[in-house]
Amino acid sequence: MIFTVVSSNYHLELNPSDLGIYDRVIVQDVIKSIAQTQQFDVNARHQFKV
Question: Domain of life of the organism in this record (predicted)?
Fold first, then answer.
């Protein structure tokens, strides 16, 4: 399934209505995959809580 995600350094935007009946599952998967990745910049000023 293909869907559009608009992102910046601090925000992600996706439209669950584009995902049909699987919107909850896909949004959960996107959140899980982002939460499991580490920041690339080890000297980043902001530490994010998940």
Answer: Eukaryota
User: What Å distances lie between residue 40 and 1, 9, 28, 31, 32, CA to CA?
Assistant: 27, 11, 22, 17, 17
Give dist(CA 36, CA 28) in Å, integer: 12
pTM summary value = 0.59
Give the position of tokens 């994010």.
48
The pLDDT profile of the chain, 50 residues, written as one tens digit per residue, is 777 888 887 788 888 888 888 889 888 988 888 888 766 666 666 666 66
